[in-house]
Amino acid sequence: MSSPLGYGRSRIKLPKALSKGEETFALHMKARGLNPVREFMFAPSRKYRADFAFPEKKILIEIEGGTHMRGRHNRASGYEEDCIKQNLAAELGYFVLRFTTAMVMSGIAERQVAVVLGVA
């Protein structure tokens, strides 16, 4: 039996929490008139997604959250999985840009993406 609040056997599927870095990056891109694809699946066989992509340019963008705490990206297994993912992206011909939330907040990410895209 389940309750109307979702306790018990049935579970309410909650949407993925929005990342401050990702949301700010999206806003910066919109301000520049750029429209990257969000959650772009670049390797369907592995279900690997990039936070943002410019598929026509084969550019993937990852916003790394939790860099100042013991998050997934800082643990050995998470770091290794990130290496495998990024190397597969390179094998498939993608150029990967990685930014921390601090880099997004300071504007470094926005400026560097504009330079790489040739719209700076």
**Radius of gyration, rounded?**
17 Å
Estimate the mean pLDDT confidence. 87
What CATH first level would be assigned? Alpha Beta
Share of helix, binned:
25-40%
**Ends distance:** 58 Å
CATH topology: Endonuclease, Chain A
Q: Reading side by side through the largest sheet, how are the strands ordered?
A: 1-2-3-4
Helix count from the secondary structure assignment:
4
Number of structural domains: 1
CATH architecture: 3-Layer(aba) Sandwich
Summarize it.
The chain is of the alpha+beta class and 120 residues long. The protein has 4 helices and 4 strands.
Description of the molecule:
- It is globular, with a radius of gyration of 17 Å.
- The protein has four helices and four strands.
- The protein has one domain: Endonuclease, Chain A, CATH 3.40.960.
- It has helices at 20-31, 76-91, 101-106, 108-117; strands at 37-43, 48-54, 59-64, 95-100.
- Strands 1-2-3-4 form a four-stranded mixed sheet, with helices on both faces.
- It is 37% helix and 22% strand.
- A hairpin with a 4-residue loop joins strand 2 and strand 3 (59-64).
- The mean pLDDT is 87.
- With 120 residues, the protein is α+β, with helices and mostly antiparallel strands.
